Amino acid sequence: MAEILVIEDEDNIAVALDFLLTRDGHRHDRMATGAGAVARIRETRPDLVLLDVMLPDVSGYQIIQDVRADPALDGVRVLMMTARGSVVERRKGLALGADGFIAKPFELSELRSEMARLLDGPPC
Amino acid sequence: MLTGLPLRLRILMIFAALLAGLLGLAGLALVLLARGSASAGLPVAADPLVQAAAVLGFGAVAAVTLVWFLFDRHMARPIEALAGGLRTGRAPDRDAARYLADLGPASRAAAEARARSAEALAEAVRDHAADLAREKATMESILADIGAGALVTDAQGRVVFYNASAARLLPGLALDRPLSRHIAPGALEAAAARLQAGVEATDLVCLGGEGQRLTGRMRRLDAGTLLILRDRALERPAPRDALESLRRHAATLVPMLDALDGPIPPALARAIRDEGQGLAAALRRLSEIMSGDAISGRAALAELAAGLPGAADLPALSVLAEAGPMNAVLRHLHDRLAGSGAVALLRLGPVEPDEVHLRLEWAGPPVPMDLLEGWLAEAPDSGQPGQSATEILAAHGTGIWPEAGDGPARLVMPLRRAAGPADAAGLTFDFALASRGAASSRLADLTCVVFDTETTGLSVSQDRIVQIAGLRIARGRLTGERFETLVDPGRPIPPAATAIHHITDAMVAGAPDMTAALHAFRHFAEDAVLIAHNAPFDMGLLRAAAAETGAHFDNRVLDTVLLSAMVWGQSAVHTLDALSARLGIEIAPEDRHTAMGDAIATAEAFLRLIPALEAKGITRFEEAVAEARRHRRLIADANEPPHPALAAGAGDHNSISGA
């Protein structure tokens, strides 16, 4: 049982994630835009943030950059997701401080194993 | 019969004969006069006769000598001077031929006309040669940068010309080596057969030496063939299969989705899952194809960095990139950073075997990602106004992003390194090879690799190579083909060795090991005669390593120590320094005791020794080897590997090479 913040603008993916996370017994919350995401993370201190790259206002890259620049948010684990499935995007996300990076479409097993790795691993 | 004698001598002889004739006639006249007086019973007055004879004689001598002198001075000498002048094209002095009537002005006019026409001819030849040189340089530039590999073989299928692209497509390509060594011969033979059937040119698909697929076109030349080659990998594979797979999975999945309204039987759920996974896999495949190596351009870092501060400090490395658009992206970012108050420098980050990192660094806060993405959404290249920086970067399979860490703020852009040496020669050729005919063992015709090694010490059996360099010679000329690598000896380099060659443990960290380096060198030196200064040492190292590396060197060998002894005798000093000094070869102090520096000096020495050896009647390899046996007391012949029982220590470095 973990506290997860989903930042995803596409409703259908959010619905699918809601279904899967609920079924796996996680508590979760969703934001459909990037504005205020960092403040929400600071406020709720989730165990894991599932962060989409392409958001309508602030990009996921800007959010991870802001999170990593804030010493108060040390240890927050962030798993980034993108439909831009190139190696470059993955490298960019990891270089900016993401703890994991998965490309859409991802399979449930891939999402589960990445989440397990981040939730069960030592604090970041 | 006197026409072979010099003119002045002949004239002197004529005047001498004239004088002799005159004196003879005068003498005869006196004798007749005396006899006439005696027969008439008149008393012979001897004294007046003798006096008359003396006057006549001296008078004749004086007159003839005077005339000869004047004739010689004013006629014979000017004629000889005129003749010499006419032969050498020099106009005679105006005063020199004043007694030769019109002959002087006429010959002067002729000489001047000849000089003018010679000058005009020389000027025409110079102009023509300059035109040819310009055309040659232009053709070389075209062929060097054409993008495709171009190579020419002679009638025997041996390489006499290739450009840098051909060298990249066919690693190890070298002049005077059979092309069939680099391209699977089946396709070559089939294409050659089509040319022999009468067509001028034919397409071919073949496999390179490393198994890569190549397409090309072969054209018949007067004596040999021209081959233009392209790497098929550069042609983007058709995404047809991946698209068909996508369509198939989507076609199956879409009707099944209608069943989601009600309870789903397990078999249908399984089918939906399978199709969904198939769809994702097909999409991944398509992404891989679309993001494949679309970039065929190759640029030096200096091209990408042109106009940016820090460009001058970048090393000579090449990357897979289009120089224009990527330079525009970097300059655009630099300008945007400057606009926001950040003065950025371009620097090189970590250099990996297949990748380099370019960095824009500045003192100040990092650039926010959304601001950077905004800059990248702009079109930086005036040549491609519709293309954003993001699209240019994506087309290169890269991106640029801020990198967190200590030190200055920075943006990082990884770029793939271009295969092959950065300084690959544009063109390598020697068309004279094609006219050489069958393989010759003349020293001046040999294909050789002159090489040198730097080591951890002086023992063949105990020490290891830390650097090896070689350069090829074909038909008495350096071809420009070079091999040079540091070698990780797998053990620390003693300080005493580093003091000589300045190669440190840090320098060889990450360098190829002995096995990789010696296999690469064996490939470079295949078929060639190996030449070294004090060859028993260098050959001993190569042979001692064979058991470990599997790289066997059974090449024929020449030793410049022995060649030097053949020319100057055994008692002379035969160090590389002494030999270079005798032959007028200069080695820059910083190049001495580097493998390439010493290999270059040895190669120059070999080329200058060839005429001296030929003058002594040693023109062929076999003759050089036979002569070398006479100098066994000085140094062993490296063509004869030492007996295994004696191998330990045999050939260890001694004072001869001074290397």
TrEMBL record, chain A:
Q: Kindly list the positions at which 4-aspartylphosphate occurs in this protein.
A: 52
Record keywords, A-Z: DNA-binding, Phosphoprotein, Transcription, Transcription regulation, Two-component regulatory system
Name the domain of life: Bacteria
Response regulatory domain location, by residue? 3-119
**Keyword Cell inner membrane among UniProt keywords:** no
DNA-binding keyword on record: yes
- Which PROSITE patterns does UniProt cross-reference here? RESPONSE_REGULATORY (PS50110)
Classification via Gene3D superfamilies: 3.40.50.2300
A Pfam family annotated for this chain is: Response_reg
Extract the InterPro entries matched here.
CheY-like_superfamily, Sig_transdc_resp-reg_receiver, WalR-like
Name of protein: Response regulator
Give the originating organism. Answer: Paracoccus spongiarum
UniProtKB/TrEMBL annotation, chain B:
Q: Which Pfam families match?
A: RNase_T
Cited function: DNA polymerase III is a complex, multichain enzyme responsible for most of the replicative synthesis in bacteria. The epsilon subunit contain the editing function and is a proofreading 3'-5' exonuclease.
CDD domains to which the protein is assigned, alphabetical: DEDDh
Protein name (Swiss-Prot/TrEMBL): DNA-directed DNA polymerase
Indicate yes or no for the key word Lipoprotein. no
Q: What is its EC number?
A: 2.7.7.7
UniProt cross-references to NCBIfam families, sorted A to Z: dnaq (TIGR00573)
Q: Which SMART domains does the record cross-reference, listed alphabetically? A: EXOIII, PAS
Where does the PAS domain start and stop, copy by copy?
135-170
Q: Which Gene3D superfamilies match?
A: PAS domain, Ribonuclease H-like superfamily/Ribonuclease H
Q: Which keywords has UniProt assigned to this entry?
A: Exonuclease, Hydrolase, Membrane, Nuclease, Transmembrane, Transmembrane helix
Disordered: region residues: 637-659
- Residue intervals passing through the bilayer: 49-71
Write out the GO MF terms. exonuclease activity
What reactions does this protein catalyze?
DNA(n) + a 2'-deoxyribonucleoside 5'-triphosphate = DNA(n+1) + diphosphate
